[in-house]
Amino acid sequence: MTATIQKTFDAAAIVGEVRQGFDAGVTRSLQWRDAQLDAMATMLEDNADKFAAALNTDLGKASTESWLTEIGFTLSDIAHTRSHLAKWAKPRKASVPVTFQPGKAKVVPEPKGVVLVIAPWNYPVQLLLSPMVAAIAAGNAIVAKPSELAPATSAMLSELCAKYLDTSVIRVVEGAVEESTALLEQPFDHIFFTGGTRVGKIVMRAAAEHLTPVTLELGGKSPAIVAADANVEIAGRRLAWGKFVNAGQTCIAPDYLLVERGMKEPLLKAIKKSLGEFYGSDPKKSADYGRLVSDDHFDRIQGLLTGAGSGSVAIGGTTDRTSRFVEPTVLIDSDPESAVMSEEIFGPLLPVLETDSIDDAIRFVRERPKPLALYVFSEDDDTVEKVLAETSSGGVSVNGTLLHIGPPELPFGGIGPSGMGAYHGKTGFETFSHLKSVYQKSTRLDLKVLYPPYTTLKERILKLVQ
Ligand code: NAD
Question: Active-site residue 148, yes or no?
Answer without folding.
Answer: no
